[in-house]
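User: Hey, quick favor. My workstation is busy. Could you predict this chain's structure for me?
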Amino acid sequence: MDLTGLIEDWLSWLLMNKGRSPATIIKYRGYLNIFKEHLGDSQIVDVDLDLLEDFSGKVLFDKGLASRSRSAAVSSIKNFFSWLKLKNIISSDPSDKLAHPSIGRRLPKAITLQDAEKLIGATDLDTFIGVRDAAMMSLLIGCGLRVSGLCNLNQSNLMFTQDNEGRERLVIRAIEKGNKERLVPAPTECLLLIRAYIGHRELDVIDTSLPSGDKVLFVSVRNRTIPEHEYHGERRRFAPRSVNDMLAKYAKETGVSVAFAHPHALRHLYGAELMESDVNILSAQALLGHESADTTAIYSHLAMRKLTKDVDRANPLGKMHTPVTDLIPHLNG
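Assistant: No problem, here it is.
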């Protein structure tokens, strides 16, 4: 029974039947290749819980994997063996009682409103690149797009509509993790910047056409690795790594910490502001594209402005005279 073949069959099943993203497939393949190496000459039918616990503990620890990465490896193992049992390749699942490593909750790190304002404010709207960068940042900040969803956008993903009062609105059809689709209403600021970008004369002369008849939305302006005669269509698409580079450039210009100048920090700002504004958890879940409301609820921990106002209004110290009460009006100006 060829383990490599079984692993590839399972990964293909995940990709085609479960809609897992290519990035997830690559990650799972890496974990299972380490497992295959650990298994050595043993057969898959001989695997027991002790072997799996040794692999998920000492073996992965010695490989330098942190608890969170080891937990992802355990998930890949458990899912793989569950599939093997489903296919009657094994009679019982030895991973059924395999425990995940204990990991702490990792809170998202959001950029501040002030720093996000500095980044988007540093774009030069007198240039094509500045308009493009501002439009891209507006979708990261104002729609909470993942960087993959941002870069995957084609012009057909822009849905221009009208609200009940006849005003033009923009809805983004984002395709992100595992080709999952979600519709995100865009703020008016996004609408204006997107209109400025797609109507720009410099974009008009760039060949962004795809074989489907669609057009790439966000384009690069130079790529020295691609011959000029081949630099069109899909090869013009702005790459995720270039988004990171673009944000880092503006961060250095404005003095914003590069640690927060990345697409996910802007997405976290979007999630935190939804919570600050008391957006219903199910609405926030839909807007952020989370499968679980528990994931969305993490952003409640970032909603400090609302909690601070509640503390100022309701805390017992504010209802009594303390040794520092008379100083507070001076602190508040």
